[in-house]
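Study this fold:
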Amino acid sequence: MNPLSTLRAALRALSKNKMRSGLTALGIIIGVSAVIAMVGIGNGARAQVEEQVASLGQNVIQVTAGSTSSRGVRQGAESAVTLTLEDAEAIAEEIPEVVAVSPEVKIKTQIIAGNRNWSASVYGESPEYFSIRNWPFQSGAPFGEQDVRGATKVAVLGSLAAEELFGDADPVGEIIRIQNAPFMVVGLLKPKGTSISGSDYDDNVFVPYSTAIKRLIGHQTNLRHINAQAANADVLEDAEKKITGLLRQRHRLGSDNEDDFTVRSQLEIGEIATQTTRTMTVLLGAIASVSLIVGGIGIMNIMLVSVTERTREIGIRMAVGARSRDILRQFLVEALTLSSLGGILGIGLGTGTSKIISAAQNWPTLISLDSVAIAFLFSATVGIFFGFYPARKASQLDPIESLRYE
């Protein structure tokens, strides 16, 4: 029999028991749709994290203060006072691959505007911070180097902080009070969303780092972070190594001493951030794949029943000249047809399900062609794998015994 004739015979056999064939394919449909929906949710979460990493800016390097120990108890990152303004200045002056540097200090405090008040994080940064973070302005402009030199009381507001303090009004030119000191708002940032850790970028206020140190923190010169930007992605790794070497030299760390700071490039931050979502995607896909295997077992079960029911038919076909491989091919095609049709319908159901979940729960989903192709090929493979034994059993039936079968 040629392949087309085999396919026609398989379709005729399946159409004789439409209900049974449909229920058998249902296992594959559910399995494929579950795989596509779960992987789509996982890919959507990973894409969201990658977008958040990209929002950090281009070619960013973060230097974070190290940890301290008290009576054998480590206090965690950023608890040490190891980073200074001089370190930030040295990075800017001595590392040619670095094109921008912003020292960072932070306090959490109450901010007042008129009869409104709001608790927000106040960051002390340099004017380069907004270009490092690739953060555009909705109105106004960033503070300048002159404001840093003069420790001017000026501020840039995130969109959420501005909304809580001024409502829908443009805050540029207005006065806010931070720790009872008046600050003029010079800029309003466009919304940026949440960070990888879940904190809201837009719920922040930015002032010159010199102003934060002198007027808000009390002349404390240690830094929480140093944000740096490499000239391009090609020199990112070299810049990271040179910053590490420079800071070890400045902090007089010997070869036996561990770093009292942490240097991470944007690539490392992105890898750490996406590792969890990648694991979650694989786990969701693996769990959903179990239903595909269950569907394959259903195909094997039904095909074995079909072989038993059609024993006499098989004997007749062999008696009139059908070879064992013709019988094997027909039953394999029947199993493959069931799994393939189930895969196609499952792709449509899985795509629709992921869209519904995305709309109803506001979860990001991303259906990739790779996941669709893999799910379909897997369903076809399941059909062949679980259909082979019944097909082989049918092909090995004795024609004489088959003709006698009632």
Notes: Residues 68-79 have pLDDT under 50 and may be disordered. The radius of gyration is 33 Å. Residues 266-309 form the longest helix (44 residues). DSSP finds 13 helices and twelve strands in the chain.
